[in-house]
Amino acid sequence: MWKTVLFLVFTLIIVPIVAFYFGEALTDIQVLSLQNLAIVYLSSALLCFLVSTLSKNYSQVDKLWSIMPILYAWMVVYYSEFEPRIILMAILVSIWGIRLTYNFSRRGGYSWKFWTGEEDYRWAILRAKPEFQPSWKWILFNLFFISLYQMGLILLMTLPIVKSMDGGSLHVVDVVLAILTLIFILIETIADQQQWVYQKEKYRRIQMDEQLDGIYEKGFTHKGLWAKVRHPNYSGEQGVWIIFYFFSVSAGGHWINWSIIGCLLLLILFKASSDFSEEITSAKYPEYKEYQKKVPRFIPRLWP
């Protein structure tokens, strides 16, 4: 816990200071873009807090996770006066967002009553913990972490597109980065599909009172990409935004710049999120701990 907190503090404070100190000053159009993106961010974050508080469904941010980056990206395309690199980045973000929105939708995440839909099961478990009693503690957690922090992270993830403004013409590096981004999106797609097929068949058998034998006996996805790493969907997601950051490197020529904060915070979030998920899963399924010992978390082993 303390390692995560310290690294978070380092990322939030030290990295931006160092990056801004050694980096280039923002242009007027970058400042204008950031100001308008910040207005959209604050409005959406407060809306998520209000809706989740009233509806008691705390997955409102989840519904916007794949949509807001598309909005942010195309806003920057407009402010950049349609620079080729910015358009390419926006197209990649759109492909990523459409795919993820579809995956979230088929799991019941959306409803015509926009405040309803499937809630992430982890919120109910977390909400019941003693640390969040009485209820005002959960309200603060919802405001500062679920709404403001997570919606802020979505904005920070897309900031490389702002840093890439006025970056000149496209390079071969940009093409390579685009291909890598598509590869990581494909990894996410395959991983989500494998999990969807497994879980759908598992719950069908449970509802029909059929025996859970074969691969379904363990109770969790462990074949395909899931036999290589425990969270291939998370691996793909992190890969997308790490590669996305390098577009700003290609545009500006500096290996470290202020827009790196988004992908760094994303790595921390997925580490903490996977810790919590695995704690729940290992308590439900006895064989999961053995699976943890044999299969790495995010990065596959290059040797047997």
Would you write up a description of this structure?
This protein is mainly alpha-helical and about 300 residues long. The protein has one domain. About 70% of the residues lie in helices and about 0% in strands. It is built from twelve helices and no strands. Helix 4 packs across helix 7 (about 135-160) and helix 10 (about 230-250) runs antiparallel to helix 11 (about 260-285). The mean pLDDT is about 90.
Rough shape? globular
The arrangement of helices and strands along the chain is HHHHHHHHHHHH
Task: Please report the number of helical segments.
Answer: 12
Report on the biggest sheet.
none
Counted up, domains total 1
Write the layout of secondary structure elements.
Blueprint: H1 2-22, H2 28-55, H3 60-65, H4 68-79, H5 84-106, H6 121-127, H7 135-158, H8 160-163, H9 172-207, H10 232-252, H11 261-284, H12 288-294
Features:
single chain, 304 residues, mainly alpha, 70% helix
